[in-house]
Amino acid sequence: MAKYLSVARILNFHGIKGEAKVGYTKGKEDQLLGIKTFLIEKEGKEIFLTVERVRFHKQHAIIKFKEINSVEEVQALKNETLKAEKTFVQEYLEDDEYLIDDLVGLDVYNMQEEYIGKIKYLVSQTGSELLSIEDKNKKQHLVPFVKKLVPVVDLKKQLVVIDEIPGLIER
């Protein structure tokens, strides 16, 4: 089975014909328009929804799914996450844009090629991302995920290089 990633969320119904008001990442309109089928995982079940049409209204997408024809059916899926196939999502990544799943577990080195640790997770804060790096002593270090401090992300070699400025990593 293909791996699926979150791309949007059903926020509410729109109108009376079963359209869903959907929240998504601003700037990803082309990606959303390209998705023909979404997956929702609800109560241990997989629900596949086929897109009939998509339009944009204010800050949201309005999506009509073939399988949904009433306000009540949309409300039953309110706050559910819409997922798309990972391979499709990857096609829409910008340069220097990565999936969290692809970063977690990567080895981290400094500019002198000294091993620092592994990426354990990403922390999202308003307008920025932080890499949580766990060193060999299980100590966590937070590094802003910006090009100046993280000049190299090599998914093929499964490694990240950070520019270890003074005070960034305390050992």
Description:
This protein has 171 residues and is mainly β. It has helices at 29-34, 71-75, 86-91, 100-103; strands at 4-14, 19-24, 37-42, 45-57, 60-65, 81-85, 107-110, 115-125, 128-134, 140-144, 152-154, 159-162. The mean pLDDT is 90.
Set out the fold topology.
Blueprint lengths: L3 E11 L4 E6 L4 H6 L2 E6 L2 E13 L2 E6 L5 H5 L5 E5 H6 L8 H4 L3 E4 L4 E11 L2 E7 L5 E5 L7 E3 L4 E4 L9
Parallel strand pairs: 7-12
Antiparallel strand pairs: 1-2, 1-6, 2-5, 3-4, 4-5, 7-8, 8-9, 9-10, 11-12
Search tags:
4 helices; 171 residues; mainly beta; SH3 type barrels; elongated; six-stranded antiparallel β-sheet; Elongation Factor Tu (Ef-tu), domain 3; 12 strands
As a percent range, the share of helical residues equals: 10-25%
* Shape estimate: elongated
Count of DSSP H/I helices: 4
Cα radius of gyration in angstroms: 20 Å
CATH architecture identity of the largest domain: Beta Barrel
Main sheet properties: 6 strands, antiparallel
Please provide the ordered H/E string of secondary-structure elements. Answer: EEHEEEHEHHEEEEEE
Report, as a whole number of angstroms, the end-to-end distance: 42 Å
Number of domains: 2
Low-confidence stretches: none
